[in-house]
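User: Some background: our group keeps a shared notebook of sequences we're curious about, and every so often someone picks one and asks for a predicted structure to add to the entry. Today it's my turn. The entry only has the sequence so far, pasted here. Could you supply the structure so I can complete it?
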Amino acid sequence: STWPWAWPLLVAGQVVRVERLEDLPAEASEEQQRWRDFRLRSLLVVPTLREGRIQAAFGFESLRKENAWTDDDIGLLGTVAEVFGQAYARHRAEERMQALLRRARQQQAALGALAVNETIAAGILEPAFRAITKAAAEALEVSQAGIWLLSEDGWTLRCAASYSAADGRYTAGQ
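Assistant: Of course. Here's the predicted structure to add to the notebook entry:
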């Protein structure tokens, strides 16, 4: 962390209240120098936690004068941080849901295409393997997909087909 003193406090859900840089403890010397370089006079950072983990932090800095942050200031800014935190969590959940829906649609389309693939239905292995490995790599968004077959003696696997999504290359029978 670029804030070795303040970061553990924020992660623990504590507010970082700095009314005067000179009043920081010795273990905050790195932050003190960094904040001085930014010409900060006072600083208040309010963390937002979700499920016990830091999600965001609101920083309020005073550049012109030292500021004595009151408990009312902290309470108000804490409320603002909490409201934002809830909106941000909802936004991230919606993004995750949209990504899952996109992926489910891709997988459904790939399975549908495989279900009506004539070479697969006819049991023509090489083109079937090509179609299956390519569809799997694309639908699962992986860099490579392969089909491994058990040997006749039942002791070893051999790569019957492999598709590399990075270069679109298909190899068979390795």
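Suggested note for the entry: Helices lie at 6-11, 29-37, 71-115, 118-122, 125-140. The mean pLDDT is 89.
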